[in-house]
Specification:
Blueprint (H helix, E strand, L loop, with lengths): L1 E5 L6 E6 L6 H4 L6 E7 L11 E7 L8 H14 L6 E6 L1 H13 L5 E6 L2 H7 L4 E6 L2 E8 L4 E5 L8 H19 L7 H18 L14 H10 L6 H18 L5 H13 L12 H9 L10 E3 L6 E3 L4 H10 L3
Parallel strand pairs: 2-9, 3-4, 3-5, 5-6, 6-9
Antiparallel strand pairs: 1-2, 7-8, 10-11
Bound molecules: glycine.
């Protein structure tokens, strides 16, 4: 078992990575917690034992469940059961479960401890680490939320073997991102070490910039185009697949702007290919629409804004000329 930490002073918390990490749960539940609520989805199918009396709350699958209505349902059932501020919430699942249960934990009784048992690759290397919680509104994704750090995270690599292949592949897109954020040759490492290396990279960024005043935005590498493709909504792309296309696009854009050479672009293409991820836009993708959507990115306060690689590694660059964006989009056409 690999043990890491997200170093945040008195809110520092451990992250256990390895096969069977879920069995550490009872040992990381805060000592003051007499009872626990376990929040999960029927499709997750991972049993946990918090080592104390507990109630299990099952939320629905699908993005519709990432809503204020689900948070209200959870908080009301916790109140009926008598969950107190010194008890604990345990979220067992992927990013949707940890985001929703984490947000409910952040607001229930103005904040109750939460432990994450992360069961997807995407969750383990991203959503479960760093304290971003939240839900969607009809007006957009993740528009309501809170920074609420968990008190421990368990990344059980054993359960990754049971993921549908496309879900695992989606996680690999997020993993590919870390190659360019200081991760180097992650594909040379065994799975546990690869997950742990990504957790460590993210933990370091979060420790330096918990509330995304600057450096944390680098974790959005490849995400500007990815979010636009996802928001456009009619492309058959999972999040990590969209990030993979976004990484290659970002490399082409950095090359167009003279920030990196063609070898570095090839390196992006090689890493994405290593994980068998797409490197081109879906057929018929509409450049005008994607440019409008990229202009609405949360980072975009001064025109089109991207995280772009360069001589000193990735950094936030704005404003980026629309013609350069158009030519980079053409470079990733199938
Ligand atoms: N998923 C990006 C972040 O946690 O900042």
């Amino acid at each position: 078992m690999i043990e890491l930490a997200v170093p945040l002073g008195e809110r520092t918390y451990p992250v256990f990575v390895g096969a069977g990490a879920r069995h550490e749960l009872a040992s990381v539940v805060p000592p003051a917690a007499a009872r626990a609520v376990v929040v999960t989805q029927a499709s997750v199918g991972v049993d946990v034992d918090p080592g104390c009396e507990h109630l299990t709350c099952v939320i629905d699958d699908g993005e519709q469940a990432k809503s204020l209505a689900t948070v209200e349902d959870l908080c009301r059932s916790w109140a009926r059961w008598g969950l107190t501020r010194s008890d604990v919430v345990v979220a067992v699942g992927g990013g949707l479960v940890t985001d929703v249960a984490g947000f409910a934990a952040a607001v229930y009784h103005r904040g109750v401890s939460v432990v994450y048992v992360s069961t997807t690759l995407l969750g383990q290397i991203d959503a479960a680490i760093g304290g971003k919680t939240g839900v969607n509104l009809p007006e957009g994704k993740n528009l309501v939320g809170a920074f609420w750090q968990p008190s421990a995270v368990l990344c059980d690599t054993e359960v990754l073997a049971t993921l549908p292949p496309r879900e695992l592949r989606s996680g690999l897109g997020e993993l590919a991102k870390y190659h360019f954020l200081g991760g180097g040759d992650l594909d040379a490492l065994p799975l546990d070490e690869r997950v742990a290396a990504c957790v460590q990279l993210k933990a370091d960024v979060v420790a330096a910039d918990e509330r995304e005043g600057g450096r944390r935005a680098l974790l959005n590498y490849g995400h500007t185009l990815a979010h636009a493709l996802e928001t456009a909504g009619r492309y058959d792309l999972r999040h990590g697949e969209a990030v993979a296309v976004g990484l290659v696009f970002a490399a082409e854009l950095a090359h167009t702007l003279g920030r990196i050479d063609s070898d570095r672009v090839e390196e992006h293409r090689r890493v994405v290919a290593t994980y068998d991820l797409p490197a081109t836009l879906p057929p018929g993708a509409d450049a005008d629409e994607l440019i409008v959507l990229m202009g609405r990115d949360k980072k975009a306060t001064d025109g089109l804004t991207f995280v772009l690689d360069g001589p000193h590694g990735p950094e936030v660059v704005a404003p980026v000329d629309e013609s350069a964006v158009r030519s980079a989009l053409e470079a990733v056409r199938p």
